[in-house]
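Q: My labmate handed me this sequence with no annotations at all. I'd like to see what the chain might look like in three dimensions before we decide whether it's worth expressing. Could you predict it?
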Amino acid sequence: MITLAGVAFGRAIGGTVIVESIFGIQGVGRLVVNDGVIPGDYPIVQGGVLVIAVFYVMINLVVDVSYLYLDPRIRRG
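A: Here is what I predict for the chain of 77 residues:
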């Protein structure tokens, strides 16, 4: 269940452009596409991808660390 929650959060972060476009929310996804990719402003694209990647890595870190506390087979004896 924990792994599935981590994957679901990763997909939610990856789908920010679609969600922000549907609901008209200003966020990182629309910033990267509308202000970065379309006009060719590559530092905005790099920064947005960096922010999304850091969130993705942090979510995976939380999932991995939570296994230490929840699964006794992983703990060292």
